[in-house]
Amino acid sequence: MAKSQLLLPSLVLLLFILISKTISQSIIQLSRDRDDVYCNSWRFSVETNDVGYWDYVPSGCVSYVQDYMTGDGYRSDSEVVASYALAFAKTVEIAGDGKDAWVFDVDETLLSNLPYYVLHGFGSEPFDELSFDKWVDLAEAPALQASLDLYKELKQLGFNVFMLTGRSEYQRNATGKNLLFAGYSDWERLILRESSDKGKPATLYKSQKRLELVNEGYRIHGNSGDQWSDLFGFAVSRRSFKLPNPMYYIP
Amino acid sequence: MAKSQLLLPSLVLLLFILISKTISQSIIQLSRDRDDVYCNSWRFSVETNDVGYWDYVPSGCVSYVQDYMTGDGYRSDSEVVASYALAFAKTVEIAGDGKDAWVFDVDETLLSNLPYYVLHGFGSEPFDELSFDKWVDLAEAPALQASLDLYKELKQLGFNVFMLTGRSEYQRNATGKNLLFAGYSDWERLILRESSDKGKPATLYKSQKRLELVNEGYRIHGNSGDQWSDLFGFAVSRRSFKLPNPMYYIP
């Protein structure tokens, strides 16, 4: 009897805790869901290039971007893009003359600067060239795993891989070292901005460099990049693969 | 005493029900979340044009697409795209010579065929021209609300609006009637496929029609469409606005 008399209030208390926890979780979830709906739409507009030029992640979406970048979303999106790139690559007939090419951007495409952006607000802070250059010099950015897997498959299929980056010539050593560190090897050429490319919009600079490849006789079948400025312009590849990047925009 | 003796087993039962419901909900949620992560990534690849040509919504993503199209996601994405289109439109200096133009696609841009697709599997079934033509003849497709709002604002700002659709000339009456029914009015021109356009890829057909406008002296500032084939090609607008559409792909 005494035991059941003690059990009763405990059970009532437990029920109360369980129900109030459920209710408060529901309220938090509801407000989170509403923010997420907007931030999801903001990301849609960013990734489809509807936003055009943008500076920072909206303040209301910073934790959304953090969750996306560090959770399943970013990894999964990158994997699915890579799977479509590979499916296309497998349909390409490799001529065997060494002219079948694939172009990769570097930052947020082959290499992930997530360890840097974790410490710099996931794109919510103004870009700080000084601290980013220091990070580049460390040459310790990990590979974007899906891109590394794709890269290896493309090499196996017989593609010649070109890396076309907005980084500058003075960063050649650090960039090459970092690419090796991350597991890349046997690329055909690493193309960086020369002094004559300084100040050019990325779309123009990258188009000109692709045109040089085309003029050398390369057939650019695929092009992978996290910015539309990696993919648009002239001398474009047969198929372009836009990787996700809700952290920053390069015109 | 007797009362509390009855209360005790009831409370234990209630607790048991509550806990087992929570657990089973968690398991369902977990598997749903996993599917959603993939389908979200599939939608990312579709909307960024990474997939290229695709026939149907993957069978594992049909209910995901249904939820997206009938829930907050589609409405919110359309609204955010429209907000960026309007923000850009407001930066355009209207010359007052009647040559400042905006081009809209019709299906899934100005008009929503969702009532049709609700009955036809949300893009999971092969396209059935016969039943779709019957639906077109009804001329009862509602407006995509965000596009209607944008349309009215653009008219206010002084843009001349062109509607450029993949529909054919024989559907001119039904299409015009439907646009009026949905709330659109005072468009400059409704452009449909003539017999000479039959069989042309949408990108070519729409580029040629835009080029005709450019040759008539129109300045195409903005272009809104749910397909990349509405936006790519030549004689492209200064800014393009890709609306969401995870139900079908038009090359």
How would you describe the overall organization of this protein?
Chains A, B: Keywords: Glycoprotein, Signal, Storage protein. Chains A, B: Belongs to the APS1/VSP family. Chains A, B: Residues 1-24 form the signal peptide. Chains A, B: May function as somatic storage protein during early seedling development. Chains A, B: This is Acid phosphatase. The structure is a homodimer of 251-residue chains. With 251 residues, chain A is α/β, with parallel strands linked by helices. Chain A has two domains: 1-52; 70-242, Rossmann fold, CATH 3.40.50. Helix content of chain A is 50%, strand content 12%. Chain A contains eight helices and five strands, in the order H-H-H-E-H-H-H-E-H-E-H-E-E. Chain A has helices at residues 2-47, 62-70, 72-89, 114-118, 129-138, 145-157, 172-182, 202-215, and strands at residues 100-104, 160-168, 189-193, 219-225, 239-242. In chain A, strands 3-2-1-4-5 form a five-stranded parallel β-sheet, sandwiched between helices. In chain A, helix 7 (172-182) links the parallel strand 2 (160-168) and strand 3 (189-193). In chain A, helix 2 (62-70) crosses helix 3 (72-89) and helix 3 runs parallel beside helix 6 (145-157). Chain A is elongated, with a radius of gyration of 23 Å. Chains A and B meet through helix 1, helix 3 and strand 5 of A and helix 1, helix 3 and strand 5 of B.
